[in-house]
Amino acid sequence: MELLLNISLLALLLTTAVAIAWTRDLFAAAMLAGIYGLLSASFFMAMGAVDVAFTEAAVGAGIAPLLILLTLALCGRRQRSDKTRAVLALILVAAVGTLLLAATLDMPAFGAADAPAHGHVAPRYIGESMAEIGIPNIVTSVLASYRAFDTLGEVVVIFTAGLGVLALLLGGSDSRSAVPSPALQSGGQSRDLVLRVVAKILIAPIMLFALYVQFHGEYGPGGGFQAGVIFAVGFILYGLVFGLDAVQRVAGNGLVQLLAAVGVMIYGAVGLLGLATGKNFLDYSALAGDPVSGQHVGIIAIELGVGITVAAVMILIFYAFSAQLRRDGQPAMQVEETIDEMIERRVG
């Protein structure tokens, strides 16, 4: 039964990937990308990688399709036909795919007991992480303690990506010269009473669940990456239903930019505390009286920094796209006005 499930999920993944590459309707490709993320999360769940499945569901099937749709609102729905470029892309993909298949020939058999990961890596983490780190979730132990320096690099990459989006969308324009349309001056609030009521009901539980994921990552699936994305989804939903002006009154653009940097600074400051006490960088044992308690304090602190940066960067990207739509003379995106209608208006 498990083999049949895995084969079915892989077949659906392959079919979805081919459909994404085949279609020239970028709106359909964005929807298929969300489906691909959901299928990937299901496959990871079937493989027992719950934390990875959680991340894929939040990012791949959650916020990523929304950001793709915002991009389509700026660049249009239809892909231009360029056979030469398509052939070159096909050759490149085929070459990379061949190299990847060749590389798998040197890999150990799937699930082999004598694989290097099972013989050298897994025993250390599984057998000793509880005594050294003192938390049940081994994935969190690995990400936030054993390879905390690598995770710091990932957070910096996310922060840098946010800066890149801001530079691309906002760097070449002068927002002082933008004249908002009457629709923007009204705040862009949805006129649909049902959407407003449902949003008010859902936003608070979304935020509460984000906090649960943030501070429960030591004991179960979750952590700063997943919590940050979920928290950002709550703000983005608020902006979609009640308008960009309303959500920026809650968290202004300047505040969100500051928080994006503060999260990285919190992470780095934890490492500097270790150096200040004569320990190694990101050695949490200096944060409390005993090493295990120090691990708890350090992991909570750096996960908080991760969550703040991820949430702030996601919200910043949403603000940047919405601001770009405003400068183009389009109303802020609303739920009642579909992306399809926005794209058709822009292309027309």
TrEMBL record:
Residues covered by the MrpA C-terminal/MbhE domain: 104-170
Superkingdom, natural source: Bacteria
Record's keyword terms, sorted: Cell membrane, Membrane, Transmembrane, Transmembrane helix
Keyword presence, Ribonucleoprotein? no
The record's family statement is: Belongs to the CPA3 antiporters (TC 2.A.63) subunit B family.
| Membrane topology reported for the UniProt record | Multi-pass membrane protein
Please give the name of this protein: Multisubunit sodium/proton antiporter, MrpB subunit (TC 2.A.63.1)
Keyword Phosphoprotein belongs to the record:
no
Pinpoint the MrpA C-terminal/MbhD domain residues. 11-74
